[in-house]
Amino acid sequence: MDESAPPLRKIIHIDMDAFYASVEQRDDAELRGKPVAVGGGGPRGVVAAASYEARAFGVRSAMPGARARRLCPDLIFVPPRFDMYRQVSGQVRGIFERFTDIIQPLSLDEAYLDVTENKMGLASATEIARQIRRMIREETGLTASAGVSYNKLIAKLASDENKPDGLCVIRPAEGAAFVAKLPVRRIHGVGPVTARRMQSMGIETGADLRDRDLPFLERHFGKAALYYYRAVRGRDDRPVHAHEGRKSVSVEDTFFTDLVTREELIAELDRISERLWERISKARAYGRTVTLKIKFADFAIISRSRSFQAPVRDHATIAEAGRALLLAQLPLRMGARLLGLGVHNLEDPEADMEAGQLALAI
């Protein structure tokens, strides 16, 4: 095992606070200070995001709307406005770019930034995080929390430490002790199932996990063992990837009311295919495999794919393939709460350049 020290970096993890719900509260004064859920409040609706006022009652994202109402009878549901969320996310990205080009978005509301060398020539990553948070507040009217540290793992954990509207700085000498005090379920990379398994072994905290040697971890957790071994020692040498290779392009929609009939399923899939083609065209991300995703009312998911000999370069073929995949599943065993369509097996951008075309835009 390589125990050499990873290069010292200055990493910031920015996480917007209750992003979707905060945008809605910003834009509607009647919602401010009240428990708000973005999503559907009907019997089959799902919470996409919850304000901090709603979280105080136990309301969380991905929770069925009916359960959220039981927890918080005064909960106000508002429909999502993804175009607005994307617009605000673009504003925030623009703020990041004033400081660095090494930005790795994780979603619309969070990203890693490597500011080891930055455009402002600032020596302090903490000062950069302060300025970014100030600019976000002044220019978008929203708040963000930041974690500042020497690697991605600790920065992400730190950003959650003082939410909302918080800043947490963990220096290299403090990393291992910081992880040691955390519940294992909070360690990035330890999912709910693994956390329960660890707890059944008496591993409740990072310190407990650190007390187990590598052979023990390998016996019980296989390939993930080395990551856990390093993580609880505050080690993570993953770089911030500013230009990760795109593996797929997809669009999916979750519905407030489950779709059942052939007509409404096809109509919704056609809308999804149009949005997918817009993304494909913009990114020039042409792939050979078209994949349909269906999530049922009971949250079970199936996917079906069709592959072509060459990358698909027209919307009609993608739309037709998606419809054929959907029709082959009809009648559905129960209503669909989500439909998705994507393309995979993208062509090599290097080969694309050699053919005299533009490289894939990431």
UniProtKB/TrEMBL annotation:
InterPro entries, alphabetized: DNA/RNA_pol_sf, DNA_pol_Y-fam_lit_finger_sf, DNA_pol_Y-fam_little_finger, DNA_polymerase-Y, DNApol_IV, PolY_HhH_motif, Rev_trsase/Diguanyl_cyclase, UmuC
Keyword terms: Cytoplasm, DNA damage, DNA repair, DNA replication, DNA-binding, DNA-directed DNA polymerase, Magnesium, Metal-binding, Mutator protein, Nucleotidyltransferase, Transferase
Gene behind this protein: dinB
Reactions it catalyzes: DNA(n) + a 2'-deoxyribonucleoside 5'-triphosphate = DNA(n+1) + diphosphate
The organism of origin for this protein: Sphingobium phenoxybenzoativorans
Positions with a binding annotation for Mg(2+): D15, D109
Cofactor list: Mg(2+)
GO cellular component: cytosol
Active-site residues, Swiss-Prot/TrEMBL: E110
Name of the protein described by the UniProt record: DNA polymerase IV
Record-annotated site: Substrate discrimination: Y20
Protein's cellular compartments: Cytoplasm
Subunit record text: Monomer.
EC identifiers of the protein: 2.7.7.7
PANTHER family given in the database record: DNA POLYMERASE KAPPA (PTHR11076:SF33), DNA REPAIR POLYMERASE UMUC / TRANSFERASE FAMILY MEMBER (PTHR11076)
Any one biological process term the GO annotation gives: SOS response
Gene Ontology molecular function, alphabetical: damaged DNA binding; DNA-directed DNA polymerase activity; magnesium ion binding
